[in-house]
Design goal:
Strand order of the largest sheet of chain B: 1-2-3-4-5
Distance between the termini of chain B: 23 Å
Shape of chain B: globular
CATH class of chain A: Alpha Beta
Number of domains of chain B: 1
Structural class of chain B: alpha/beta
Number of strands of chain A: 14
Largest interface: A-B, 22 and 19 residues
Radius of gyration of chain A: 20 Å
CATH topology of chain B: Transcription Regulator spoIIAA
Helix content of chain A: 25-40%
Number of helices of chain A: 10
Oligomer: heterodimer
Structural class of chain A: alpha/beta
CATH superfamily of chain B: STAS domain
Strand order of the largest sheet of chain A: 6-5-4-3-2-1-14
CATH architecture of chain B: 2-Layer Sandwich
Largest sheet of chain B: 5 strands, mixed
Shape of chain A: globular
Radius of gyration of chain B: 14 Å
Number of strands of chain B: 5
Order of helices and strands of chain B: EEHEHEHEHH
Strand content of chain A: 15-25%
Chain lengths: ~325, ~130
């Protein structure tokens, strides 16, 4: 495995910046630059980088879609949220429509925000492409077909010309896919979700979204700690604050930054990447959560440091 | 984690010492249970003295949240007092200050809720007088 690319990082619903929000960012950046002299492009880049993602960009954007670049010739994707549209366009731009590609798609579950990119995933309409969809749910294929049936969408599933198949994977045992060892684990979410552990070439990536950790059962906590054990990166559903996750939003099926840090610390993971951001949170709020979470990691650290990051559309993590 | 409690008029002050983590949080649940199970005893609330608490994990915070919910159902109060700076940050980052009332000292908490309890706490039987 070479790197992780994020194509969609918002939870529940895609989020777009408004003109007013863009304007505020520009005003703040210009105000911050007042009196400065940028002698080179590098100086300017350094200033812009210093604004942070929330200052020069956005945590965006699309709903869940994450690419794992294996370094091989086949594509690996986690979830088919709205980010799958941009991902599909990027692969077409890279290879052109005439060069058939293989896509392996691992589904956490089939709630709407995780499948809504499929109708806009252009490679699925091109003959010769192969799309292998994997998941723990029996209703995997039904969910994809149903969202394109009338009256929900004008283009039926039968319009896809790629070879598309669906495979239900058995949890808690290794599967060999695209040169990786893949293990999935059932998670606490309405209708269930599945977390994935991807292992190859001595690297481990965990994709664990839409997962509520009730904290009531030590056996369950220990199982997740083992699942996350020594991972290079844990992509983790940190949608809510801990207080919300265990009170007003208990049983909503999501977790918090605090629990993410604790599980990663117990598991000896190297990086926690917060994911599935609350759509009601603006970029400044997500940046504050990142700062808070880094501080929380610092004050609760008992072993090696845990790197804490917050995913945004376009972010890459080298493995 | 050590847990001791003492009644002052219509409030109980519970003193916790040590780390409240994934391992010993069930012990906190057990320790709080007797204080929450006798609504007819005239106790109107509990103040948790956290001066000796070095750390509390998410599981420990969940125990406090459940205890707070249980106390509210009995029209009682649970408050936390005298947080060490690190624990104060944990409460802040987890947004737990929205779940339970937090006071700088036990005296401030008792003063907010019950003058008789504060008088008893400051009296000969309280920590300052004993």
């Amino acid at each position: 495995m070479k790197r992780i690319r994020f194509w969609g990082t918002r939870g529940s619903l895609p989020v777009a910046l408004t003109a007013a929000q863009v304007r505020r960012k520009i005003v703040a950046a210009v105000r911050g630059a007042t009196g400065r002299v940028f002698a080179s492009d590098a100086d300017l880049d350094a200033y812009v980088d210093g604004l942070g993602v929330h200052g020069y960009g956005t945590y965006g954007g699309h709903s869940s879609c994450v690419e794992i670049d294996t370094g091989g010739g086949e594509y690996v994707l986690c979830d088919m949220g709205s980010g799958a549209r941009a991902f599909g366009q990027a692969t077409l731009a890279r290879h052109g429509p005439a060069a058939p590609q293989t896509y392996h798609v691992f589904m956490s579950h089939v709630h709407w925000d995780h499948i809504m990119g499929m109708p806009f995933f252009t490679p699925a309409y091109i003959p010769g492409n192969r799309v292998h969809v994997y998941g723990g749910h029996a209703a995997l294929e039904e969910a994809f077909r149903r969202q394109q049936g009338p009256p929900s969408f004008p283009v039926d599933f039968s319009a896809f010309r790629a070879d598309i198949d669906f495979t239900q994977l058995e949890p808690n045992r290794p599967h060999d896919v695209a040169g990786m060892t893949v293990t999935l684990m059932r998670q606490n979410h309405i209708g269930d979700s599945y977390g994935y552990r991807f292992e190859a070439e001595g690297r481990t990536v965990i994709y664990s979204t839409d997962s509520e950790h009730t904290l009531a059962d030590p056996v369950e906590t220990d199982a997740f700690v083992e699942f996350f054990r020594n991972a290079n990166v844990v992509i983790f559903d940190a949608m809510y604050s801990l207080a919300d996750a265990i009170s007003v939003k208990a049983d909503w099926g999501h977790s918090s930054n605090v629990v993410g840090v604790e599980l990663c610390q117990l598991a000896g993971a190297k990086q926690l990447c917060m994911f599935h951001h609350e759509p009601a949170s603006d970029d400044d709020a997500i940046a504050r959560v990142l700062d808070d979470t880094r501080r929380y990691e610092q004050i609760t650290r008992t072993g090696k440091p845990l790197l804490v990051t917050s995913a945004y559309d376009g972010m890459e993590i080298d493995l | 984690m050590e847990f001791t409690s003492r009644r002052y008029a219509d409030f109980v002050v519970a003193v916790l010492v040590g780390r409240v983590n994934h391992t010993n949080s069930p012990g906190l649940t057990e320790a709080l249970a007797p204080l929450l199970e006798a609504p007819e005893d005239g106790v109107r609330g509990i103040v948790l003295d956290f001066a000796g608490v070095e750390y509390i994990s998410s599981v420990g915070l969940r125990v406090l949240m459940i205890a707070s919910r249980q106390a509210r159902a009995q029209e009682r109060t649970i408050a936390v007092a005298a947080l060490q700076p690190v624990v104060g940050e944990i409460f802040e980052i987890s947004r737990f200050k929205h779940i339970v009332d937090v006071f700088p000292t036990v005296r401030a908490a008792l003063g907010q809720y019950s003058r008789p309890a504060l008088a008893a706490y400051d009296g000969p039987g309280g920590p300052a007088g004993s």
